[in-house]
Specification:
Number of strands: 7
Shape: globular
Number of domains: 1
CATH class: Alpha Beta
Radius of gyration: 15 Å
Helix content: 10-25%
CATH topology: Rossmann fold
Oligomer: single chain
Distance between the termini: 32 Å
């Protein structure tokens, strides 16, 4: 749980490519922010431990424009739980640190990569599941 800057790259309604608590974008490059404001971020493990979310999810979908690996770091206990069986996650192969951390965390949690679909540029939607 932490307060951090939520950095916007545009202010269009429904706009994307924002970042929480980091100064890099979905490619791992410097974020060209237009506007920032402080907001609270909570990990999935914290939300479950505090019973804010009542049960471990069977499936998790993550598409957060560059901090997917950081989201997984805050869900390590959840990912290792046998109830959690599937993760759909967007990963930019060009952002090597992110791609490697996502892979390592998911493998360490008992997942294996089942499918990888091209999204845009070097970004792919990956489906991971436990056997």
């Amino acid at each position: 749980m932490k307060f951090a800057d939520f950095n916007l790259t545009n202010i269009d309604e429904g706009g994307a490519l924002s970042a929480f608590g980091v100064d890099f974008n979905q490619d791992g490059n410097k974020l060209e922010k237009l506007l920032s404001y402080k907001t609270l971020g909570l990990t999935l493990d914290f939300l479950l431990a505090q019973k804010i979310i009542p049960e471990v999810p069977k499936m998790i979908k993550i598409d957060v424009d560059g901090i997917e690996h950081l989201i997984l770091l805050g869900a390590k206990m959840t990912l290792k739980n046998p109830i959690c069986q599937t993760v759909l996650i967007e990963v930019n192969d060009k952002f090597k640190n992110q791609a490697l951390e996502v892979k390592n965390i998911l493998i360490e949690s008992g997942f294996s990569l089942k499918k990888k679909y091209h999204a845009v540029d070097e970004t792919y939607n990956q489906i991971w599941s436990k056997d």
